[in-house]
Specification:
The protein is mainly α and 229 residues long. It contains eight helices and no strands. Helix 2 packs antiparallel against helix 3 and helix 6 packs antiparallel against helix 7.
Length: 229
């Protein structure tokens, strides 16, 4: 029964991601280019919730919506969002880097070069996950900050490090925490990467990461360290 639930969750999430991709390709490109990747990636773990968030918030930040508001002399709709929504977007921005890093680590790197740390594969996975998530997350943040603030490469990179390091770490704490619960308490054994249940657990882990990174992003946005999105 759990396997059926896992497959259903993965398929639905994949369909939600495809719907977002198609909507973006039909002309609703985001004002901040990297969000064209963030939204479909977010749907891979959040499924219908991610799809709802895209139609509720993502469409407010399209180039068309921003230009239309500007031509009417109005405040762009994306900039009038309440703080809690902006913080949520900041968290998903970070989470997309984590998601890509984890997919590469679990699905590619550790499949090609398996190894253990302290006798457990999961600890090795966490190290590789963090490194890849950090690199991708900083890249995502860089390509958000650089065009928005018109900064030099070194200035934008420094700002990206400040904005994403704590946020990404907060996300990984939640993700690692749930996967530790799943592996050591719920199942009592490592889960095979070929098992849909593993990736279902990863979806839940990403949602846990969103929750643990949310207060961190709240502080970062309020302090002006991270851009309000």
């Amino acid at each position: 029964m759990l396997t059926i639930l896992a497959i259903a969750s993965l398929v639905i999430a994949g369909l939600c991601s495809c719907i977002i991709v198609l909507d973006i390709l039909r002309g609703r490109r985001q004002q901040v280019g990297v969000m064209n990747l963030v939204w479909p990636i977010s749907a891979l773990y959040a499924g219908p919730l991610g799809l709802w968030a895209y139609f509720k918030l993502g469409r407010l930040s399209t180039k068309g919506a921003m230009q239309s508001a500007k031509s009417r002399g109005e405040e762009p709709p994306a900039q009038s969002k309440p703080l809690w929504q902006s913080v949520g977007l900041a968290a998903t921005h970070c989470g997309s880097g984590c998601t890509l890093g984890d997919l590469l680590a679990e699905g590619v790197v550790l499949s090609l070069v398996p190894f253990t740390l302290f006798g457990h594969e999961i600890f090795a996975a966490w190290v590789v996950d963090y490194i890849l998530a950090f690199l991708i997350g900083i890249a995502f943040q860089y390509f958000t900050i650089a065009p928005m603030k018109q900064l030099s490469v070194s200035e934008a990179l420094t700002a990206a490090l400040k904005a994403d390091t704590l946020s990404l770490t907060g996300w990984q704490v939640g993700m690692y925490g749930w996967m530790a619960i799943a592996v050591f308490l719920i199942f009592g054994r490592p889960l095979e990467k070929s098992d849909p249940v593993f990736w279902f657990m990863m979806q839940i882990a990403m949602l846990a990461g969103f929750l643990t990174s949310y207060p961190v992003n709240w502080w970062l946005v309020r302090a002006g360290i991270k851009e309000k999105m």
